[in-house]
Fold each of these.
Amino acid sequence: MSSMVVPVALWGPSPPTHHISCIIVTPDQNTIVTGTPDGQICLWDLRTYQADTLQLIPKALIFGHQSPVTALAIANDKWEKASIISTAEDGEICLWDSDDGTCMQYQSQLRGSHTDIQTFQMTSGLKRLWRVIVCGHYTDIFILDAATLEVVYKLESKIAPDWVSAICVTKSSLNEEGNSVIALCANRMMKNWHLTDESQEILYETEAKMLSNDNANCVRFNQFTNHAMLFVYALCWQIYDLESYRLLYEMPAKDGDSWIGGDFVDVNDISVWSQSGATYIFRLPKKCLPDTESFKNVSTEENAITLHTLSGCISQNTSSKSVLNFSYGSRGSFHKLIVQGNAAGEVRIWKLNSYSDAKNYVLDHDIEPIISGSLADPWKNPKTKPNGILDNLITLDDNKKECNVSISSTLFIADRGILICGCDNGDIYVADACVITLMQFLNHKQSSATNPIIHTMKRHNKRVTCLLHPYSDVASYDSKLLVSGSSDFMVNLWNIETGAWLYTFAIHGGGITKLFCCPQNGSSRLANCICGISRDHAVSILSLTERKCILLAGRHTFPVNSIRWRLNEDFLVVSCTDGTVYVWQIETGCLDRCISGTATTEILHICDEVTMVGIDATNNMISLSSLTGASPNQSPNIPINSTGSMLNLQDTSMIGIDNACSPTGYPLRIAAVKANLYDSDIQILLFDTESLISHLLHFDKVSSDELEDSQDEDGITFTTNSDSAKKPVTLLRQSQITYDSAQLELSCLHAWDLDPKLDEICIERLGLLHPNRPITFGILSKRRSLSLIIPGWEPQPPQLQLNIDEDISNATLENKSFVSYSHWMLSSSLTTQHMLAIISISNTLMEMNHTSFISEFEDDIDYSESNEEAEDREMKEVTRVSQIKAGWSQIATLHCVLLPDKLGKHNFKAPLLQVLARRWQHKCLEIREAAQALLLAELNRIGRDGRQQIIEVWSPHVPRNFDISQNSASTPMDGNAGTPTTMLDNVSTPQLHHSSTMASALPSPRKAFLSQRSSHFRKQKSVPSGIANKPDRNVSITVSNGGNLLQSPANEYLERRIGLGGIECGVTTTKSLQRSISAYEFRRRQITAIVMMGVIGAEFSNELDASTVRRNNQNRDKAGLPENDVVMYTGKALQFLILQQNSMQFPGNSTVRRTAIDLIGRGFALWQPYLDVASVLLVLLDLSCESASKMSPSNLSVTSLDTSRTARHALSLIATSKPALLITTLSVQIGRNSPLLISLMQSTPPGSQPPPSAIILFQSRAVVIHVMELLIEKASQEVIDLLVEVVNIILHCSDQIQLKSRNLPDSFPSLFKFSMVSFCSKSKRVAVGSQKGQVMVFDTKSVRSQALLAYSSPITALAFSADGRFIAIFSLSEAYLSFWQIGSSTNIFGMIGNFTPKCVKKCKVNTSKVQDSQAVVHKLVRIVWLNQKELVLLTNGLEQRFTV
């Protein structure tokens, strides 16, 4: 599945389970984050209103971890956009966006269970570095970079290493510039690490001390005084002095209770909470204050005072860890908040006042919570309660009353568009997925005769736990069979076409938890067999054809973790959660052996196939099959390694491979997730925009007759397996699914109620449907993580900017706001995804023949109508189609240009410019055009100041150095390719690196040419004096698909993040960028910076150039060379990408290269001073001539054709922007290779191997001719100035065979619109007059030329006589007409013996009626020969006759 996926959620009638196990508050106190043991993370919107009143609303639920969330932390203190870090029990660490819940980074290399994380800030001079400290069930402590989650260094122990129970980062009073880490270990040791130097990979503790207590739960540092620490144990809490580590005060827990956490809430006040749920606010004794006389006097008899008790605390937490958190606001209302989460999914908030003097308050006073909220609140409100996918469609048999059922299992057959739902009551429903979703979301009028429920299958009497359609996984199965498993211990076999029950397997002693297909490439006994697992830990192999159980493995004492196969030896290998491995003989059904210990690793490693089970895990992640978008008949066997089985949904638009012409994937897929094992399914509709566009274009080419011929009587058809003959799904059914998916996606994404007139067009003409309930969208990000908007969440009501003539009441806006602005105000990521989707689909439908979702003709055509009536009907139809196309155009315009103004800039989350830049040359043409239009519209919207800020943010990431002298260097390893990257040290014209592994085995002209150019530049390498080699500031990078790319010097600015027009960029400064920015992210930023600067330079060249000049005036080195010339380095970077040699890591048709080709053509006038124009033009010519004729069928792909199309477009742009430079460069190259080109055109083998440039020019002759035609049409004046060179280029690139049968005026008629060009059909010669007064006579047969110096001023007109012996030449500047005798037509150059062309007559011409304007003179002056001796000179209507 592509990166253009739009998820939409159907939550169902019951809320998800949310057992809160950890909770934090962002620094701005606008967001609360909770984690659960089921792996979800919930974002809560905490809104502040007047009088400091608060409102708590659940915002988004993130399905991000496959194991319990153990800890949460804030990654930075950014006000506008804080990041969240979470750790899971399986050792995974993730970085989340607190706005929309997208996964920004993840770390899965740290093995072990993490129990606590904290973030802290390190300062080094002016630098601010955010770090994450991680500890858990291991002896080491890891320090990570908060932005990339890469390990910076780790803390180890020399003295009694043990697991760390609690950690805390403090500011050392001895060394104020450093930080210290205090850790309490399980062996009662307190250890201290002093963090001063990051250059070391390992730091050891500087101090260790044995404590008297164990079972430490929490350590907190007094951020108000920087002198005290709070240690919370199960039996007591203690206050220690930070400098001497002396115990200052201790308070034991009450009988039968235990302390679990605490924090400092003021200078001398702490909050401590217990296992029972009680939370207390204590005033510490004066001996704990550093400024009092009794400080450090432990013998002072003074006890802590209980100021307050928090009432309403609930102890229903799922672990012994604290589920409370203290938050202190740093601005605004300066709130001191304590938040608590419980197992019921409820969050409560208490607000604390400042306790400066305890006498002013009533001691031991209860504080009531000021606000509380639950994840189940939206389901309790009838206005926000979401629907399930089967709601209002199921009726009870007794009273025919509608009821809402709870769906426990979901299966979607993508190529049929069929959704199968298993329910808690044991019923199974088969429904049309598109129709049923249209009914639940939109105002879809379903006819009473058509029921979306196709079949209802009743056989189970308990919860349906799993469904399996074997044919969707393996094509050898019968496509009619459906298998279901239930909690009633039964496995049922069904006929999905008829809904009939076929057989029941009653062999398990527990509820069925998983069903999957057996491998079909091994034993014949496993053919058409499935494997089932039950809650009694039994594994069965069931034959669907023989209707019997082949194997029942039921001696496992622990849950099954994975199933593995040894097909050659006929073994089934079962791995359990306790590490034990059972080996079963499939043939006999006997247990062969039971293995435990280290030998299990080798046994599991040598197995053939692996099936991941995880029966007790919740379905937190979108399944792999739901995301790939691949066709059915794929094996469900996937590696058990979690990192290998996850689909990384990083932005692949810059590295993708284009789709073929046939549609790929599915426009709609439906997956299911669960918050808890016993929860109902949440259906996720996954709209693949790229696949949808591909299908729409495909079916637009299919005629209606072909669709009707493929229609089956039953309407919905299934593939049947009869005598191994497969009947495919009908084209009509596939087209119905495609158009229904498009209608559903557009109806959900459209910004309704902002333009009533457009809404009317959408409903009445285009066939879109207005949503009848709130639509909850989602975002897919890295690791297949899914973030879903919770029903009922809406942003604070915006002030919509409506036109005066729009009569919309406030009540209507309030009721319909969820479909107009909610999803445009959540996050920039969501806005970008939705805008690209709706613009690209609208543009696609606008270009199609069948453009509306409404039937073309409501009534049958009356064929007896008259001709006038038929013509009138056709005109109406043409008008209707044009109106529909205009409607789609208005939708695209609304979302591309008008939407920010409609919503207001303060209410609109602008699209991310870097995401649009990465999709500048997306593999899908429609998405590419949408991204380009949206990026340019956004750049125009933010204005000049906004664009200048973009330049300031992204220009530091533009590469600076390019290597032409070294092919490789010793550099850090590239994480993607696994090979050393190339260090680029010197600044010069970038050339190609040699590669031992090339994409093609045949020699490539471009490869040879670029290698030749590289050698040439190595001989003549020059480095500007102002830029020296600085290896310590350079970091080599690799292009995102594995190829060598560019490098950039480290930044010297402070870390910052600028948000403007959707810009999100963190610039981190350290000694080496590779320590602070991951290799992938660093490469990605460089590519994005090149594209961003390239787009701004191409569209707003003056601003980029002005920014460069301004920066150069401020930043000049000692030699006077500008160090930050953005234009120069951007141009060199684009050239480097174009000239990069083809390799397996960097293919010639990659999206990155195609982007560089497009941008170098758009901004050629700006980049040209810094380019090797000849090299760039030759490479573009070579890329332009790549077509299907040069490629074998196996190598034919759309990518090469797309690259060729882009290169031709770039050449056209270069030709129109710098025509003289293009003509001169091509003329020089042709002049150098003229003899070789002539021999190649005449099919005469040259004496030696021709140079690559000659081969490129020969192969791209048609492209050059097309460029010359374009120049003659668009840049006539420049062509006139270089007309001799143009004709020389045309003659060298024309087809000689064609010229023999057709004259040059017939092959190239546009050339002869110029009066200074003449052709003699008898002698096959062409004469061209130049602006220097010279006439060049070319022989088209041999492409040789002869010069005639006729005048010293420009030639205005010339013409051959009929016999070719004379040529008349006229110069307007000198007002003379001369006759030249050039000899007999039988000789090549008109020379007979020693005869030389000579002027035989010169006549004065009256030029009074002709203005001397070179722009129009060639249109006003003509020479016409009347016979062999007489001619007429036409000068602006004046005829003058002359004779030889």
Amino acid sequence: MAAEADVSIELIHAFGSLCGSNVRDAVLFADDTAQQIAFPVGRRVCISHVDNAEASFVASERTEQVTAMAVAQDRSYLAVCEKGVGESWISILDLRSGTSKPMKTIKPLSAGASGARLLSCAFSAPQEGGTSRYLCTVTSGSEPTVIVMNWESEKVLAKCKVPGAAERVAFCIKPEGTEISVSGPHMFRLLHLRSVKGEQVLKAMPAFSGLDEKSVRILDHAWLESSKGIVAVCIAEGQVHLVSTEELLVVRTISKPFGDGEDAPSMPQCVRSFSQGFLIGGADGYIALWEQTDDETFVDGSQGDSEAGGQRSAEREHKHANTVQVRQSEAAVFSLDLTSGEESLLIGFRDANMGIISMGSLYATKDEEVSCSIIGGGNHSGPITGLDVAVQRPLVASVSSKDSTVRIWNYSTRICEIRADFGGDAPSSIALHPFGYYLAISFAGWLRFYHILVNDLKLHQEQSVRGIKLLKFSNGGHLLAAAQGKLIQIFSSSTLLKLATLQGHTKEVTGMTFDHEDSSLWSIGEDGRLLEWDTSTWQQVRGLPQEENLELLAVGAMAPGAISVSVQRGSKSFIQSVQESKLEHEKELSAQAKLQVVCHFPGSPVLFAGTDKGALRVYPSLHVEGPPRCREVGLHAGGACSMLCLSMDGRTLITAGDDGALFLLRVSGLTSEDETTGTQGAEEKISAESEAALASKEEIQRLENSCQALMAEHKVLKERIESEAAKLEEECAAKVAEARQKDQAEIQELLRRLDALEKASEAKERESTRIMLAMEASHAEAADQLGNLYERKIEHESDRLLALQIRRENLEVQIQQEDEAHQERLAQAQDVADEELRRTLAEKDLDLKKHQDMLAFVQHRFEMLLHDSGVDHDLQVTKLRQTGRESLEEQKKVEVRLRLEQETLTRGLEMQEKDREQVEDQQEQVAVAVKSLREQAEELKRTLHSLRGEREDRELTVQDKERRIASYQVKEKALKKFKLVLDQRLQEVTQSLQPKDQLITQLEQDLAELEGEFERQLTDQRSLEGQIEQRKQQVALLTAEASELRYQVQEKDATIFRFMNDVNNLVTKQKDLKKWPQEIRRLYHTHVCNDERGRVRLPLEEMQRQMRVVERRVATLANKGMQSRATCKLDIQRKANENAALVHELNELRVHKKSLQTQVRSMTAKLKELEGPSTAKKPALEDGEDAYAVGEQVSLSGSDSLQAVAGLPRPPSSGGVVPKGPSGSLPGPRQRSSSREALHPSGAGAGASSGLGQPPLRSKAQGAVPQLSTAKTSQGIAPDALTMTRSQSGQQLRAMQVDTTSLQHELDAMMRQRG
């Protein structure tokens, strides 16, 4: 018995998925190589390897439900939305680290909304050179909210409520994109994330024009990578809308996303974007491929406004490329995912299965079959109603009534080996024989027994038994217990006969278990009774007294005569331990949960139990004081953990639940080390036996017939090979002669090519030497001419500088004289201006006095007039006041009248506003009706067009059918003649077969079984045909080996014959006994020491030996020739690359020299400005000499050099001439191009104009610059390399010539020997 602390469990694998649920992105690639996938199963997220089924699980014991998943575009991070008790959170996993522990846990909901679920999440597009920065999610509840977070800092940036329930949220796929799209059943919105005053704000945009959200049901949407700002939206009514996020309108509606095929589905389920377009998943396993196109026009299933002039917009650049059915089933495609390289496609189906296909499979034609590889062999799509494990084989059998399937799982290889679909006849329970080769399944009206074959179930026998809900084999496998309502039927496994019917329960039986020695059967029922049955007499031994308000949930055998029972009293749960039908103790469970199933390992106190909430509990021991402690592991979601099975070795635990998932757990600590060692030995023996599989006699007979056919075919092939061997010997002589002629021709060709290569090499060497000499001479001549030209330019510039200095002194003297004259003229003008100013001031004073007198008179006159006007004003004010009072009274009367009119007009205006609103509503309704009528008219036009086509097709079909009817009428006349005779015989047969109706029914069933068996055998036959092809290839190889062995045997027979012949001659013909020692030594040397110099061979043997020798030498000669050609080619390429590198370096030095020359000019100008005029001449000359002495002279190359020379002032005597480049040509086009590249990098060929392509030179005093020597060295390498290559090629060709000569001599010698 193991200690409590030693028992541990570890989750190792899971069968199942949530692809058919409401979980978004229920299966995703976890890497870029399509080797790992991530999918939620139960309460866990499994990251599984596709090939070897190795799995790891995200560790989170608080999780009750996984609500959504998302993966970053670079497959580096995985976000999992989880729901716990009163809270929701997002776990971030680093997929590249290889660990299943979340690196971050984010709780984006506030305290008031912590109970809401996170229905979808999405990463933003990765930044350039970085990762995804943002993470968005959407919540459930009455006020759905979109939340944007910076997941690295775990900070919520912005929130925004959306007007309706949401199911999908997605980020814009462009880098640094801040647009977010969110959709629900009747809602689709675009949100913008903006920065306002240093804070992030999430703003919702208006609804999309042209998308009636209330009248359609939106299923999914995705941003398109191939079009900027376009989102594809799937509608349950069958359309796919392409909407523009920039214009907020529907730009295109695809009415038939799956094409015009008759079998194509009408409703899209999901959409996924890729670089060249998008994919649409539909019902029955169909996937539609839409690609971006460059065609001017194309035909598809879209509708909408036609573009003027046939112009195409960005949103109309997609066309329907293909529609394929990736799986032959009724399961719809619910999820799609692509790798980053877009090589593999991961598909999630409605029936919880997952598959992988290549993207190339989507381009298959209708005649090609597309095969989708289902991961792990498939999963159940409904609650599991039965589970059992074998003892002798690592097999688990499960059954689901919802999907009507039975599956056989191998928990060692972690794959579903057999899947049996029973269609409308849904199975209810299952029992697996301990040996692992036998299976019992209950149906609504039948109990059937099956044999487990290699990849199928074969019906063995069936019995008409109705209402069986529970099956259980005994531990020894000799008994089968079947619960039928409140009865228990006992069957013999060997004879399949009913042994007993157990009656004791008053209500339906809910649980059964055999004890470990099969001495007792325990049963529980809805009546709350626990009964024990003796398996030897099938009598009720004893039982616990029945209690009121007691519910028995599960029963499990713990030891011989001891069981554990899970009971429920009201709201409290208990575990009872029963020994010999007596209650030993009862423990109340502390946690509030019902134990739906219990399981024990023989001899261990550890109890494994499954709860009604989907968790697994492990109780180390029930024999403790107080409530027993336990460890709880959350596995199944949305239902109970209803089934538990423990393997024979106690190291594997299998659980099944209402969510259709199976979990495999590794258990350690149940057995001791000795038991573990013995169990391992037994397990190895069992695993060796588990490799065996059942096979039918028909299959064995068919294989024997195939072997006999292969043996007969082998015999025929053997005879054919012997006849072909004779023909080959005849053809051998002809081929030898032909090979000799080819060898002679090849030798002559090689000699001719050798002479040509030697001549070409000598010509190339001579041309290279001539070009080098010409280049050296032209460079020296150019250096001398440029030196003379630059000295003359310096002298001319110094003379100009002296002339300019003298002119500047003269100009300074003139400026001083002009300044003195100007000062004198300025003084005279100032005196005249002063006198004029004094005269003007006197005149202004007189005018001022006159104006003052006039002002005094005007002021006096104004005062008089003001007094008179004041009196008149007072009189007028009095009159106006009287008039104002009268007008005020009249205005008050008018005001009262106007107010009454205003109220009347206001009431009329309100009535007009109401009328206007009614008219606008009527206009909108009319516009909507007109639009719907237009759409109906367009739809009717399309329908009319399709109906016309159908009418034509039907007319053709009618004509064809009329012709068939005419032929059928002829056949009918002939058949009527037989009808009378057949009717009479039919009556006789009917009368004779009436007692055999039951036998006919049985035969029809047998016929159906035989047809199924025939189909399976046909499949096996095809596999065997493939094996036969392999065997044929093996036979061919063995035939070749047999021919070789036959040839060796013939050689040995010939050797033996010659030895016997020599011995016979020695004994019979040689009478002189003295010569026998010499003859015996000759025989010894000939037949023992293999001294064959004196042996006479047959002509054919000698011919074959000579032919083999010649073939080997010819092959050696050909290899040597190829190696020499490859060596020459590589050497020439290497030298050409070296020349190109040197030329490139020379050009860079020229550019650097130009920049230095420009700097010298600028420094010279600055120095002239800083120095005084008296010493200007001498420093200028010195600077000019130093500048040109450093070697910074202008390279006169091309048109730029000529323009620079033309822009300079002419020297006094232009006696220099422009230097000329080398002239001449190369021997051939390839030689000219290679020499041009090596010697003229600027593009000028031989014989170009003066100065083109010349290297930079120093002044005459310092000589040529190092670049010139470098250029000479680089150009001098080519002849040396060519000389070396030519010498090596000559040596190799001479060696080949020697080999050819020796080979020719040997051939001549052999011909002479034959002659």
